[in-house]
Amino acid sequence: MQAVWLLGALVVPQLLGFRHGAWGAEREWEGAWGGSQEEEREREALMLKHLQEALGLPARSADENPEGNPEGKGAWATEKDGKGEEGEEEPTTTPYFSPSPSPTSEDTFTYILGRLAGLDAGLHQVHVRLHALDTRVAELSRGLRQLREVAGDNRDTLQALKEAQSRSEREHGRLEGCMKGVRLGHKCFLFSRDFEAQAAAQARCVARGGSLAQPADRQQMEVLTRYLRAALAPYNWPVWLGVHDRRAEGLYLFENGQRVSFFAWHRAPSPEPGARPSAAPHPLSPNQPNGGTLENCVAQASDDGSWWDHDCERRLYYVCEFPF
To answer: Where is the composition biased (Low complexity) (predicted)?
Structure first.
């Protein structure tokens, strides 16, 4: 028994001294580790601040209290004091306000990755819509090209129809001229009661398949004179012919470009027998042509068939000539 007590007296102090040394080392280690953790938290807070400034995120203040406000805490303390005054027998509990955890660097990175994923999804949607628009534009371009081809075909068809209509009108005019007018050999003459300038009258005759009348000899001239006299009797009207000297004064040509070799110019009446000849021209019927460069187109009088030169812009009756 004495040996046991002796062993206890020797071992227990050694164990107590070892435990005391271990506690001291543990406290020293905790102090060093606590300092390292504090430095790590400061570095993380600094990194989080720089990242929030780069991303434009609102910075959280250290003084904010997400769970409550100082006023509530003061109210709770006042209520506690009041209860203490009423009676100290009731046990009271002090409320515990847990502070909201600050966002860590992992939370920030997760948020950034989420935003980037959202942007990537948006860009994907934009690409999809652009592809759809490109497909639509290609379809519209193809349709427009087809419409242009159809329009070109229709234009050609319309041109062919216009040419066919023009040929039909010319053929109809030629037949009408020979049926309603007067025929002489391989020519037909048709009188028109429309007033036109010489160029416009020529255009209308051409549209009907002919041209202004071009009497090439005396026989054609006599036939045309009888026809016009019968159509306009008892009046005397000038009627446009297809004769002019627009190219050169005194050089008379037909509308087809051939030179005129037969003329039927009006001449003033001869003086009566026994009367003295007068050098002055007759005031009402002077010798023709007398207009110079001001009168370059020829019209035929309907009463006697004589030719008179007139201003080409004067609006007169006209007579067309058609081939038979």
So the answer is: 92-104
